[in-house]
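Data deposition worksheet. Section B asks for the primary sequence of the deposited chain exactly as it was used as input, without tags or linkers unless they were present during the calculation. Section C holds the resulting structure in C-alpha cell form. Section D is free text for depositor observations; keep each observation to a single sentence. Incomplete worksheets are returned to the depositor.
Section A, Depositor: J.P.
Section B:
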Amino acid sequence: MGAAPGRGAAREGTMSGAGRLTVDTSQWPLVGLTYEGQPDDQALHARLEEIEGEVLGRRRPFVQIVDQLRGERPNPVQRAIIARHQGRMADLYQRYCKGEAYVATPELRSAMVAVFWREPPRYPHTSAAPMEQARA
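Section C:
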C-alpha cells in the first residue's frame, strides 16, 4: 500500500548541530524514522509534531522501524520531551501502532529504556540488532 494521496513520502529535517531525523512514509503502513547525530530540543519538538500529523494523524494502522544506529544518546531533557510526546499521543499509538522495532546500539537502547520507564508504550515494541531483524 502506498502513501496516502497528498502526503509526502520521505521527509527529512535537518537539525541545528549535527543532528538529522528522517520520517519516511513512502512504504506505508511501514514507517521509517532514522536518527543521525543529536537534534537540539526545539528541532526535536518540531519533528515529533510532524510525526503526530503525518503518521498518527492518518488514524490508520502502521508499524514503525526506528533506526538509531547513527544517532547519539538523547540527553535527559530530550528523553523527557520524547516521553511527554508518547504520553500525549498514547491513545493514538495504542490504537494505530501495531508494532515498533528499535535498531540501535546497546547505549541507545538503554536511553529508550529510560524513556519507556517514564512513559510505558501501549503498543508492542522490541529492540533489534541488524535492520534485517527489525523488518522481519
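Section D:
DSSP finds five helices and six strands in the chain.
Residues 1-7, 11-16 have pLDDT under 50 and may be disordered.
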